[in-house]
Write a structure and sequence with these properties.
Mean pLDDT of chain A: 91
CATH superfamily of the largest domain in chain A: Dehydroquinate synthase-like - alpha domain
Number of strands of chain A: 13
CATH architecture of the largest domain in chain A: Up-down Bundle
Strand order of the largest sheet of chain A: 1-2-9-6-5-3-4
Structural class of chain A: alpha/beta
Oligomer: homodimer
Strand content of chain A: 15-25%
Helix content of chain A: 40-55%
Order of helices and strands of chain A: EEHEHEHEHEHEEEHHHHHHHEEEEH
CATH topology of the largest domain in chain A: Dehydroquinate synthase-like, alpha domain
Largest sheet of chain A: 7 strands, mixed
Amino acid sequence: MNAVTKTLTVDLGERSYPIYIGPGLLGDPRIYREHIPGRQVMVVTNETVAPLYLERVCAALGGYQLARVILPDGERYKSLEIWQRIITALLEARFDRQCTVLALGGGVVGDMAGFAAASYQRGVNFVQVPTTLLSQVDSSVGGKTGVNHPLGKNMIGAFYQPRCVIADTASLDTLDDRQLSAGLAEVIKYGLIDDLPFFEWLERNMEPLLAREADALSHAIERSCLDKARVVAADELESGRRALLNLGHTFGHAIETGMGYGEWLHGEAVAVGMCMAADLSRRLGWFDMDAQARVVDLVARARLPVAPPPDLDGARLLELMAVDKKVQQGRMRLVLMQGMGHSLVTDQFDSGLLRATLSGYGRNDVC
Amino acid sequence: MNAVTKTLTVDLGERSYPIYIGPGLLGDPRIYREHIPGRQVMVVTNETVAPLYLERVCAALGGYQLARVILPDGERYKSLEIWQRIITALLEARFDRQCTVLALGGGVVGDMAGFAAASYQRGVNFVQVPTTLLSQVDSSVGGKTGVNHPLGKNMIGAFYQPRCVIADTASLDTLDDRQLSAGLAEVIKYGLIDDLPFFEWLERNMEPLLAREADALSHAIERSCLDKARVVAADELESGRRALLNLGHTFGHAIETGMGYGEWLHGEAVAVGMCMAADLSRRLGWFDMDAQARVVDLVARARLPVAPPPDLDGARLLELMAVDKKVQQGRMRLVLMQGMGHSLVTDQFDSGLLRATLSGYGRNDVC
């Protein structure tokens, strides 16, 4: 570790763990040695990340008995079949209950490797090395793991905490522009949930972030992780406040499912979802026109879409939202905004206004 | 509930839950109402149990939105494919995160329904209604859920606690003799682990148990659950003392895997495993001839096998044991006996003596 490394702690009692943020960390043997207790490590990565970072990680894991699984890249492979491939690799390598599963890659790799760690022999050690902005700010905090089912996204999984998260900011240099923007969608989300100063910081710093300036990225990652860790620490199993983190996600999942997994990036769908949440909040009288315009403007400046694809009509989106797991006791719950920098979870909204947002937004009256 | 119902509590802090033991409980609406918080219940059962008890359970669940999955019967169906069938049924019924999965049946149903509850939407409520002696004394306490993989038994799963366990002793009236004996294997195990008075009670009461006398069965279930709950409460995640519950299981799993799942009942394999553990303990000088004879005698009186099938030779058994998950850091750990009514977990044994037990036991020098 070096001077610019930041360390946060996600406070979950016995399951607390640190997040390390800084350049070059994935090649540093010291963090691995501190947090990997056994001698067997299964590195799970994908075809895109493997040529870039796999050897460096393996070199830093010198002294451990290593095995590797290289998955195909993409959300469409976040499936039970691919998850089984990790489990089978663990069995074929004869890995025992003291082994560690290390996820090297983005959110898809992290979700699948995490669920494999949660379910192999009823749970083994798990370490996350996220290499995308999205996974560094989002999937590495909160312990959500899972895979998709043809009938719904993230329908199978577990809450399972890693031993540590290693967010190497230098790994973002190889990220393509679309992935970087997708990560920024989640960053913007934290500002909207309950951190107005951070939202305003993002309004001032969107260009440095898009230019991948190290200081700006590092600050955005740290602040996002802090915001998320605060929410998660208060509500590990998502019974209440944690649902705020789903801002934009119920709309977004409907878009992802409707387009078929892998067409839209998760962050792109969430970006549109936040714009739709702002639109519905405005229709409910909770959010003014200016606030809505600021949200749409910042999302657009992050080079993200602000409206759903034209071939998904309102009725279809509503149908897709109805099967989403945020539906509780038959009532749909959404995260909506009550003023800039303040969101809430609610099922108290007029379904006619929701239909108006789904049918009209991005098609005529706003964009 | 009536006067003869016994209630135990498994003490696991926030995850504590009660076990109800008594005749007729599965048809009593009151326990369900007390422990099922949402309105959706998915009853998971199998083809054998469904005609006997499904309607009675569904009648007692009047007022809930019910769905059912009826699985094929047998250990060979404890697979990922069948587990997926439960998940798909939950999605097709549009069950939400507040739903409850209720397992009605033996250990296989409980293990699969439990893993489905643990992994559906990252965890929903779970209620167990075990209908075999084995599941009433064993799988209903401890939170182990899981499915088999072609490369090993119970290799995929989670630790997941039920909201409550309802052990209806009247359901044992329909159990076939072979299943009753398989359950008695686990009952005997508790005596051997650390409850000599219970072992001696079993020596005096094996005949009443085989005759399914209600008082005897009820006492055996309660005592077994208490013995297991005490061990589990001290060690929820199986890091130490809980491993004692695996007495006979490392040998037993090798037999089950070697024969192909479903040929031998789990309890039958464990019965032989306990006899083999007694044999190895005697070879190590920890257990005398008389003690070994008492173990083999009680197992035989419970109408259980005391030796492995002749077509599984010692070398094959050793190979199968090596992949078992109780292997830690490359060393095989076994539960062995140090005197009657006292077991311990150890990797300190001569592997030559283990080979002698695996090759010789039941083939020449003992039986």
